[in-house]
Design a protein that fits this description.
By secondary structure, the protein is an alpha/beta fold. It has a single domain, classed as TIM Barrel (Alpha-Beta Barrel), CATH 3.20.20.70. Helices cover 31% and strands 21% of the residues. The chain contains eight helices and eight strands. Strands 1-2-3-4-5-6-7-8 form an eight-stranded mixed beta sheet. Helix 1 (57-66) links the parallel strand 2 and strand 3 (73-77). Helix 3 (110-116) packs parallel to helix 5 (143-157). The longest helix is centred in the middle third of the chain and has 15 residues, at 143-157. Bound molecules: iron/sulfur cluster (SF4).
């Protein structure tokens, strides 16, 4: 058995999904740790980089070896995968088994994202809000500047990707969503998804219990959809 060099801290593993990497059957590796504090986070158990988990990276690699020929791709998700220095080595190890590699990121660390982009076949990047309004969602100063830099880097890289925004009425209005879409289009983004907030897993009771409001009506979706080559809405 080849040595495994990465000590990536793992918070969970989804063994098979068809929805986390477009067009591919994938396993999703959930990485531990995230520096942001989004009120609507549905993986709050992954935010502390506790390292306490029944799973470890060598165990994930054992699993992936048994799935060669059965899966197309491995997606690194989180938490924020680029938080960990061990990510590039883990990506290279998974890639050496022949899998395509996907990444879910908030763009928290532009330089680290830039370092792994050449190793990736697809990226799903969360766009939280208008970049000037990021801190209200992430609870973290200057987070919008980092996300904007990462989004631009992703666009410049040519790596296949989608930008997606989780919509919650405490953080967005129809007007702010329209302005955000215009901001992305102004950066030459072509692929955009709006996804309705799902309360499952959300630890903030006020956010989870907030009465559902239908922000994503047909008129708004038509206007936003017309700005992009591909656009879709993921309903809750
Ligand atoms: S960036 Fe993602 S993982 Fe981190 S707090 Fe926000 S929603 Fe949760």
């Amino acid at each position: 058995m080849p040595p495994t060099s990465s000590n990536l801290q793992i918070g969970g593993l989804t063994p098979l999904t068809s929805t986390d990497y477009p067009g591919c059957l994938a396993a999703v590796v959930f990485c531990q740790g995230c520096p942001w504090r989004c009120g609507y986070c549905h993986n709050p158990h992954l935010i502390p980089r506790s390292g306490e988990s029944a799973l470890n990276w060598p165990g994930v690699m054992d699993f992936l070896r048994r799935r060669r020929g059965l899966l197309d791709a491995v997606v690194f998700s989180g938490g924020e995968p680029t938080l960990q220095d061990e990510l590039p080595a883990a990506i290279e190890e998974a890639s050496s088994l022949g899998f395509k590699i996907g990444l879910h990121t908030g763009g928290t660390y532009p330089a680290r994202l830039g370092a792994v982009l050449p190793l990736l076949s697809w990226v799903g990047m969360d766009i939280k809000a208008e970049f000037a309004d990021y801190d209200r969602v992430t609870g973290t100063p200057a987070s919008g500047e980092k996300a904007r830099a990462s989004a631009q880097m992703l666009l410049d890289s040519g790596v296949a990707h989608e930008f997606r925004t989780t919509v919650h009425p405490l953080f967005h209005t129809r007007e702010s969503l329209l302005r955000l879409a215009e901001e992305l289009r102004g950066m030459d983004a072509r692929h955009y998804v709006l996804q309705e907030f799902r309360p499952q897993g959300c630890a903030d009771e006020a956010v989870a219990a907030y009465p559902a409001q239908e922000l994503l009506d047909d008129a708004l979706c038509d206007r936003i959809g017309a700005m992009f080559d591909t656009f879709s809405v993921r309903r809750a």
